[in-house]
């Protein structure tokens, strides 16, 4: 089974390749990103792991730079690295809950 996994994270969090390797499900065959802070790391991880990579541009500043709904709707599941405070990631989690899209949430402290 193929899985398109969207990855989002709170600004300021230090996400590592080890975090990605630990939390990206084995069923994922495509990594999807909004083209924000995580883009370079996700692109490198996808290449190293032999996964497809797709980037969706963030919406306008009026939306706070949140990933587009197109990106969230395109994905089968969302992996959210959250500091527990970010309103942007919180809005993504709420949006996914409203449309019954699975979300894996990993709380992480800003270091």
What gap, in angstroms, lies between the N and C termini?
36 Å
CATH-defined topology: Rossmann fold
SSE class: alpha/beta
User: In terms of per-residue confidence, which ranges show pLDDT below 50 for 5 or more consecutive residues?
Assistant: none
Shape: globular
Number of domains: 1
Q: Which range best describes the helical content: under 10%, 10-25%, 25-40%, 40-55%, 55-70% or over 70%?
A: 25-40%
Top CATH class: Alpha Beta
Number of strands: 5
The CATH architecture comes to 3-Layer(aba) Sandwich
Order of helices and strands: EHEHEHEHE
Strand sequence of the main sheet, in spatial order?
Answer: 3-2-1-4-5
Give the mean pLDDT: 87
Using only C-alpha atoms, the radius of gyration works out to 13 Å
Largest sheet: 5 strands, parallel
Given the structure, what is the number of helices? 4
SS strand fraction: 25-35%
Which SSEs are present, and which pair or pack?
Layout: E1 3-9, H1 17-23, E2 28-33, H2 39-49, E3 52-55, H3 69-74, E4 77-82, H4 87-98, E5 103-107
Parallel strand pairs: 1-2, 1-4, 2-3, 4-5
Structure description:
By secondary structure, the chain is an alpha/beta fold. It has a single domain (3-107), classed as 3-Layer(aba) Sandwich (Rossmann fold), CATH 3.40.50. It is built from four helices and five strands; from the N terminus they run βαβαβαβαβ. A five-stranded parallel beta sheet has the order 3-2-1-4-5, sandwiched between helices. 31% of the residues are buried.
Features:
111 residues; alpha/beta; five-stranded parallel beta sheet; globular
Describe the structure in brief.
The protein contains four helices and five strands, in the order βαβαβαβαβ.
């Amino acid at each position: 089974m193929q899985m398109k996994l969207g990855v989002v994270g709170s600004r300021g969090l230090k996400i590592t390749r080890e975090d990605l390797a630990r939390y990206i499900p084995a069923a994922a065959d495509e990594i999807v990103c909004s083209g924000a802070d995580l883009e370079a790391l996700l692109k490198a991880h996808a290449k190293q792991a032999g996964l497809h990579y797709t980037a969706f541009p963030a919406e306008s500043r009026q939306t706070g730079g949140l990933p587009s709904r197109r990106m969230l709707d395109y994905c089968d599941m969302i992996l959210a690295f959250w500091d527990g405070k970010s309103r942007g990631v919180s809005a993504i989690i709420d949006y996914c809950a409203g449309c019954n899209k699975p979300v894996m949430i990993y709380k992480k402290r800003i270091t």
